[in-house]
Amino acid sequence: MPVQILMPALSPTMTEGKLAKWVKKEGDKVKAGDVIAEIETDKATMEVEAVDEGVIGKILVAEGTDNVAVNTPIAVLLEDGESVGDIAAAPAAASAPKAAHEDAPFVNPSCLPSATPAQPAAAAPAAEKEWTGPTVTVTVREALRDAMAEEMRADENVFVMGEEVAEYQGAYKVTQGLLQEFGDKRVIDTPITEYGFAGIAVGAAFAGLRPVTEFMTWNFAMQAIDHIINSAAKTLYMAGGQLGCPIVFRGPNGVASRVGAQHSQCFASWYAHCPGLKVIAPWSAADAKGLLKAAIRDPNPVVFLENELMYGQSFDIPADPDFILPIGKAKIERAGTDVTITAFSRMVGVALQAADKLAEQGISAEVINLRTLRPLDTATIVESVKKTNRLISVEEGWPYAGMGSEMAAVMMEQCFDHLDAPVVRVHGADVPMPYAANLEKLALPWEQDIIAAAKKVTYAA
Amino acid sequence: MASTPTSGKAKLETVTSPSNIASPEQMLQYFKDMLLIRRFEEKAGQLYGMGLIGGFCHLYIGQEAVVIGMQSALLVQDTVITAYRDHGHMLACGMSANGVMAELTGRKGGYSRGKGGSMHMFSREKGFYGGHGIVGATGPLGAGLAFAHKYKGDNGICTAYYGDGAANQGQIYEAYNMASLWKLPVIFVIENNKYGMGTSQTRHAAGVLYKRGEGYDIPGEKVDGMDVLTVRAAALKAVEYVRGGNGPYILEFDTYRYRGHSMSDPGKYRSKEEVEHMKENRDPIDLIRKAILDTEKFSEDDFKKIEKDVKAVVNESAEFAQQSPEPDPSELWTDILVEG
């Protein structure tokens, strides 16, 4: 049966074009791949190639014709044994059926939520077990090491890679002893090439291994952020669920001490922004151990933001060998009634100190340790604010588009009628971190900043 | 391992095709496999022209011998990863034409249920790990797949493809370094089609691409990528070296894409004569066709039958890709995280 040749779309935006020139004439034989015509699109002059073999039976649109709409029949191709007389029978079948979406009006999902399928409610995080047994005192550093060691004992596919993790015993001694216990097959020193080893770790995770990838600090992971986002976070979705990436990226985040702008930055909001990742920022040794174990067992890519200044701090943690914490669950570290303070990582300790001082002044602050930044435990925050009617968000990082901005948005969307004061963000100064001791101090949030914010929202100032 | 390089010195000579590299039956199979890619891609171009495929669509026409020759040397446990000119690799790995074409049209029946598109399809079952849109990413990702082969001790290797344009990315050399240090079983396959998008190799790359492995003690060679038998000979040698635990290998294939970089490429950076010359004299399908006829085992009738079979497969895929429904709107929210 004769086949219609249609005006093709030759760019994603082309809707019509000029049929500039016929390279083949009626009666010419063509085979697949032969150039038959030239078309001027909105961008350039392009060649049209034959897809089927046959003879040009009839040219339907003369050369030089302007504004030929895409999918208009421009010629008829005769196959073996057909003649011009068969052309009447040329099927419309070769014309393009429209994709269903083409007729649908464009809708902006954020303006018209009803036109878009609703985002399913996030599954509630697993309930947190009460750990009532004996405790042991460990540093955050030891807790992280123990979490890795226990998971490596439990699962042969778990391995640790990064700069100085093996023979040097960890740039911050977090991986101390792992090489001795697990050998160099599973504790691997990498060259100082974050982009490359992050990509290798992601490839290994595609193949079913469970890498724990240490960045000496998260500042250097900027070299690797392409693999963290483009390769690790997006692949499950792009693969329609076929190929996941069970990997942990961990290391110290945020401000250290007197190391200047390129070594002192909080990346919490950067990673929390991205679907396809889970983002954890532990504070205590219990957070560090329980959440790192959960992160290693999780089938998704997890960004695990530690803090160098916390590594040496000691906490009591459950001695139970099965101790683990659920991802996605915040913890009320101190109950209170007058104001809710959210914080994560090192700032939880600062917020608790502020709460002590506030109590002396008659202000009862509830301190929430966020622990997981994505998915955020909004239920716990909202419940707290329904009680206190005030929220202060504390973070070490920059304010613009930061975690505090997200807290303010959650309050607008879910607590508008419960607020007795505007949300206040306590945060690092909006500057690259200075080196000078006095300036660095000025760039960071402190206990007194939280106290001042609490007084402001409780109208006690 | 007599036929493999004994040290990290890159070999300079071009591999020539031994006459006994494949049986006439194998050669006929390569013809069929290459023709499937050729006809599939032509059909994809046609569906793009009809507005059924959107966005970017990078066709593999002209380069078919590279992936078919490489695949002919692999075992079932081996893995393949490539960039975004990837439809040919999927078909060569044994993924179904229906599933690939339906992904191109963004339909439910596609490999990623319409959520990946031309550049992002995967099949763990067939050992195909994408389908990646970031130029150069397949270097480290492929080394990572190779790392997993070695870690698990499954005797598998990875073939990590990228183009001459990607060969300039820094992450490729980070991957070379670690792959060589750790003796990872990976073949870095450079499909040098002479143009990184519209910039010719002479204007974008200093030196010879495969020789860039020398500094990392990775052997390599440049091979005629238009002749599937030559590709196969080089692949067999590289595979033996890599599977033997000697570390990575680089194969740089001289190849050529007939179509533009993507669909909206007017091709102003090269002459029509250059393209015509390659089509007339170096076409991989014509070359294998002649080689098969020379064996006098098969005739034009055999080719005609294959043409017909291939056309049927491709037409069915186009039909399927148009009939398969668009993904359910609820798919917007699935596959972001693995639950549980």
Your description of this structure?
The complex is a heterodimer of chains A (461) and B (340). With 461 residues, chain A is an alpha/beta fold. Chain A has three domains: 3-95, OB fold (Dihydrolipoamide Acetyltransferase, E2P) (Beta Barrel); 135-318, Thiamin diphosphate (ThDP)-binding fold, Pyr/PP domains (Rossmann fold, 3-Layer(aba) Sandwich), CATH 3.40.50; 331-457, Rossmann fold. Helix content of chain A is 26%, strand content 22%. Chain A is built from twelve helices and 22 strands. Chain A has helices at residues 140-154, 178-182, 194-206, 225-233, 235-238, 268-272, 285-297, 347-360, 378-388, 403-414, 437-443, 447-457; strands at residues 3-6, 16-22, 29-30, 35-40, 45-49, 54-59, 65-69, 73-78, 135-139, 158-162, 187-189, 210-214, 248-252, 278-280, 302-306, 314-318, 331-334, 339-343, 365-369, 372-374, 391-394, 424-426. Chain A has a seven-stranded mixed β-sheet, with helices on both faces. A five-stranded mixed β-sheet of chain A has the order 17-19-18-21-22, sandwiched between helices. In chain A, helix 3 packs parallel to helix 4 and helix 8 (347-360) crosses helix 12 (447-457). The longest helix of chain A has 15 residues, at 140-154. Residues 92-100 and 102-112 of chain A have low confidence and may be disordered. Chain B is α/β, with parallel strands linked by helices and 340 residues long. Helices cover 41% and strands 11% of the residues of chain B. Chain B has eleven helices and eight strands. Residues 1-15 of chain B have low confidence and may be disordered. Chain B has one domain: Thiamin diphosphate (ThDP)-binding fold, Pyr/PP domains (Rossmann fold, 3-Layer(aba) Sandwich), CATH 3.40.50.970. In chain B, helix 1 crosses helix 2 (64-71), helix 2 (64-71) crosses helix 8 and helix 5 (138-152) runs parallel beside helix 6. Chain B is globular, with a radius of gyration of 19 Å. At the A-B interface, strand 5, helix 3, helix 4 and helix 5 of A face helix 1, strand 2, helix 5 and helix 6 of B.
